[in-house]
Design goal:
The chain is built from one helix and five strands, in the order E-E-E-E-H-E. It is mostly beta strands. A hairpin with a 2-residue loop joins strand 1 and strand 2. The strands form two sheets. Strands 2-1-5 form a three-stranded antiparallel β-sheet, with no helix packed on it. A two-stranded antiparallel ribbon has the order 3-4. The termini are close together.
Length: 71
Amino acid sequence: KQIGVTPGSKINIKINSKPYKIPFVNNFSSVPIGELLALVAGGGYLEICVNQGNAQKILEIDRDEKILAII
């Protein structure tokens, strides 16, 4: 709610000009195993993750790469 997005809605992100539509959820189990998701982690940061996977590998990005999130 602090970022203006409610659980269940989609967040549009762009990485290296490639668009993604990712569900914003409260927990990992809200999406199937292997699926991308976005959530606010314990530190208050928006995280792009994969349920039981590796978002860095799936999205083919490097650490500290810029991600444009359209909320």
